[in-house]
Write a structure and sequence with these properties.
heterodimer, A: 346 residues, alpha/beta, Nucleotidyltransferase, domain 5, 5-stranded mixed beta sheet, 12 helices, 43% helix, B: 233 residues, 4-stranded mixed beta sheet, 6 helices, globular, binds zinc ion
């Protein structure tokens, strides 16, 4: 179990399209400033790495300044700095890593280059207190979909399974495009689904009962495309709400079933859900019901903390600091493929 | 005056500490893939060698490019953060101008500085024999550069002999250096400060728009024959 420390930690996040700066003291959230470049990517239907990297550079110092102002503290009071070292987009990560190194250099304070996935798990502690160990974490976003076994947030995470093709959030984006809904696809599909019938169309659940903790969303996306094309070819209107609800049901069904199965198979009774798709209302509802039925305690941070932010990075940094883990060397590299087993970049 | 200057817009990571009169410590490494790893370490080394602490600094100078995106941003964001955290003036200086100041010591007329822009293009600008920029910076195919000028910078060296760059005699006269030197960058910043000039903005000179295309309609997934069947039925 991670015990909250008392140091003031600045967390910096730049792995995808959100520039995040967060401040925590122990497990207390003091500030969470996020500047998103999502609107600049919308017309491209996906995150454009160079557009994201340019936006990170523009937003970095203002985001940190905003976080400091929100928390009512000065840079001089910061005890340690944490930054996402990976995984993520290489050019985007580099902006945050170089910024964090410069803050560490200017302040003479320790620097932790941390794993983005572990940070997604850590953030839940800001709302629900120290995470009992072991726990299972379901991380679902536009960039990743995986099930992790968390024995110790500061050093012992293993991957139980992950998507073998698209991330869940990617499937949302692609289906949204098919339905003429905006990017990113999560919120508009969630909204449309509320007006639809989730049982209207039975879309396939790939790998549903294959006994692994892996996912596959590519086939589901293709099945939705095929169904929509057949409707259009037959000259019929596409019932957007029903398609959205039925697609969302398939995603939530697979994710929650696999997550509960992973808990039962590992003998773990705590499940954390995080990542951008963790903000999805159907996923949250279904997970709550299935966890309750299986005797599993479910922990899901509020939607604003599920998506990428600096507070999650600060929280993991805070745990590392409290655990007395030696910081990263100043020469550590941003690593776009950092495995979840490496909580700290060395 | 104590200026910390660095440039990461070319494959070189170059860092120098300058007291307003001369460079008191410097470090340069050429490794185009590791700017993010090398820069902060090089700064630490240069400060230690110069016997200075970050609190002693009075200004920051940074190469603003043009340069391939990722490496360029390593330097610019580092400069912005150091300036913000330490409350220092930050001067952005065109990287080609730095190379020009280094090169003009050995020229007898106008010359060009060209650096590698990748994708078989160069970033370039034309200079007077005293190192003043006359045109540019721009990004072009090597073949589109004006002929007849001696050229400094890695771009000239990379594309000079391959049929890319041609002077009137079919060959380009290459002049030194290939890469910017942060000690020279620092002395340029010292000159600006001494002359009471405003700082050059520490913003990257990209000169290109990001590569991104707006998607067309989603690709059909239904096989053509099956789709036809649905339509004709
Ligand atoms: Zn994420």
């Amino acid at each position: 179990m991670s015990r909250p420390g008392s140091g003031l930690v600045l967390g910096i996040e730049s792995s995808c399209d959100e520039t995040g700066a967060g401040l925590v003291r122990g497990h207390e959230l003091l500030a969470d400033a996020v500047a998103s470049s999502v609107a600049e990517h919308a017309r491209f239907g996906g995150v454009v790495p160079e557009v994201a990297s340019r936006a990170h550079l523009e937003a970095m110092v203002p985001a940190v300044d905003r976080a400091l102002a929100m928390a009512g503290v000065t840079l001089r009071q910061v005890d340690a700095i944490a930054v996402t070292a990976g995984p993520g987009l290489a050019g985007a990560l580099l902006v945050g890593v170089c910024a964090a190194k410069a803050y560490a250099l200017a302040l003479g304070k320790p620097l932790y280059g941390v794993n983005h996935l572990a940070a997604h798990v850590a953030v839940d502690q800001l709302e629900h207190g120290p995470l009992p160990a072991p726990a299972v974490a379901l991380l679902v976003s536009g960039g990743h979909s995986s099930l992790l076994l968390v024995r110790d947030l500061t050093g012992d995470l293993t991957q139980l399974g992950s998507t073998i093709d698209d991330a869940a959030g990617e499937a949302y984006d692609k289906v949204a495009r098919l339905l003429g809904l905006p990017f990113p696809g999560g919120p508009p599909i969630d909204a449309a689904a509320r007006e639809g019938n989730a049982q209207a169309i039975r879309f396939p659940r790939s790998k549903y009962a294959d006994g692994t903790a892996d996912f596959s969303f590519s086939g589901l996306k293709t099945a939705v495309a095929r169904w929509v094309e057949a409707r259009e070819a037959a000259g019929l209107a596409v019932p957007v709400a029903d398609v959205a609800a039925s697609f969302q049901e398939a995603v939530a069904d697979v994710l929650t079933r696999k997550a509960v199965d992973a808990c039962l198979a590992s003998g773990v009774d705590h499940l954390v859900i995080s990542g951008g798709v963790g903000a999805n209302s159907r996923l949250r509802d279904l997970a709550a019901r299935r966890c309750e039925a299986a005797g599993i305690r479910l922990r899901v941070p509020r939607p604003g903390l599920c998506t990428d932010n600096g507070a999650m990075v600060a929280t993991l940094g805070s745990d590392l600091l409290a655990a007395g883990v030696p910081p990263s060397p100043i020469g550590f590299a941003a690593d776009s493929g950092l495995p979840v087993t490496e909580v700290l970049a060395a | 005056m104590l200026i910390l200057a660095f440039d990461t817009a070319t494959p070189a990571v170059t860092v120098a500490l300058h007291d307003g009169t001369r460079a008191i410590a410097a470090e340069s490494v050429v490794d185009s893939r590791r700017h993010g790893e090398l820069l902060a370490s090089a700064i630490t080394k240069v400060l230690a060698r110069g016997g200075a602490a970050v609190g002693d600094l009075t200004a920051i100078g940074v190469g603003a490019g043009p340069g391939p995106y990722t490496g360029l941003r390593a330097g610019v964001v580092t400069a912005q953060v150091l300036g913000s955290a330490l409350g220092l003036r930050v001067d952005g200086v065109c990287t080609l101008d730095v190379i020009a100041v280094q090169a003009c010591k050995g020229v007898a007329g106008e010359f060009i500085v060209a650096t590698d822009a990748r994708r078989r293009e160069v970033y370039w600008a034309r200079y007077s024999m005293s190192g003043e920029r006359l045109s540019g910076p721009a990004v072009s195919l090597p073949a589109d550069l004006p002929a007849g000028y001696p050229m400094a910078g890695e771009g000239a060296a990379l594309y000079g002999g391959t049929g890319g760059l041609h002077g009137p005699q079919g060959e380009v006269t290459l002049i030194e250096p290939r890469y910017p030197d942060a000690a020279v960058l620092a002395s340029m910043v010292a000159g600006r400060i001494a002359a009471g000039l405003d700082p050059g903005p520490p913003e990257p000179l990209y000169l290109r728009r990001p590569d991104a295309r707006e998607p067309g309609r989603p690709k059909r997934v239904t096989p053509a024959a099956a789709a036809e069947r649905v339509i004709t039925r």
